[in-house]
UniProtKB/TrEMBL annotation:
Regions that span the bilayer: 27-48, 68-91
Keyword Transmembrane helix among UniProt keywords: yes
Protein keywords: Membrane, Transmembrane, Transmembrane helix
Protein name as catalogued: DUF502 domain-containing protein
Length: 236
């Protein structure tokens, strides 16, 4: 004789726990969706307001939209800042602009404290905003901090100059950048023999996601039936 299912409804306490568990799961699922969107909107809103607060006080009342419509339009300062920056960049490319820039830098170089601050900020800006084709384009695995432990790294270029000459290894050395988690802007510069590196097929963007997420976000697996290409290292 087939066994009948228990049709007795669960007690109220069990139904309540199930309802609370479902409510909690729905809350965290929604939080995963809403939090990145909310943080992005808040960051854009805050940065826009900060730039407006720095730029608009320098705008004459006759050119300020608030004088005509009576309300602050967030983003006007950002637009003015972008237009001003484009004009400055266009002027700097000319002979007159370069001459004025060199004159200003000569004056700054004569000020001990200001010179150090300006040169540091200039070098930082050139590093971050300079338009250059030099960038990481290969991802690899390197044994760090000891044998048997592997870390994701980015290949910079082949090691050159005095560093390459002084390393007592009869093999091509590779300069790799080993980022830290979860902040990949800091890390370690390593000089590793090429044979000690394992080439990865993932893109630099996927590797960045892997590092920032502390191993929680892995890129989609590619077709492993295809043979791996040899490790190509940029020489410049």
């Amino acid at each position: 004789m087939p066994k009948l299912k228990n049709l007795t409804p669960p007690p109220p306490e069990r139904r309540k726990r199930r309802w609370l568990a479902g409510l909690r799961n729905n809350f965290f699922t929604g939080l995963v969706v809403v939090a990145p969107i909310g943080m992005t909107l808040w960051l854009v809103w805050a940065v826009t307001g900060k730039i407006d607060g720095m730029v608009l006080p320098f705008i004459p009342e006759t050119f300020n939209p608030k004088s005509y419509i009576g309300i602050d339009l967030r983003g006007i300062g950002v637009i003015i800042f972008l237009i001003f920056t484009v004009i400055i960049g266009w002027m700097t490319k000319g002979i007159m602009g370069k001459s004025l820039l060199n004159l200003g830098e000569d004056l700054v170089d004569r000020m001990p404290v200001v010179r150090s601050v300006y040169n540091g900020l200039k070098q930082l800006a050139e590093t971050v905003f300079a338009q250059s084709d030099t960038s990481f384009d290969k991802v690899c695995l390197v044994e760090y901090p000891r044998k048997g432990i592997w870390a994701v790294a980015f290949i910079s270029t082949t090691t050159k100059g005095e560093v390459n000459q002084k390393i007592p290894v009869n093999e091509q050395m590779i300069s790799v950048f080993l980022p830290t988690t979860p902040n990949p802007t800091s890390g370690f510069l390593l000089f590793v023999p090429q044979s000690d590196l394992i080439d990865l097929d993932m893109s630099v963007g996927d590797a960045m996601k892997l590092v920032i997420s502390a191993g929680l976000v892995y890129p989609a697996e590619k077709n492993t039936d295809q043979p791996s290409l040899p490790l190509e290292v940029p020489t410049e």
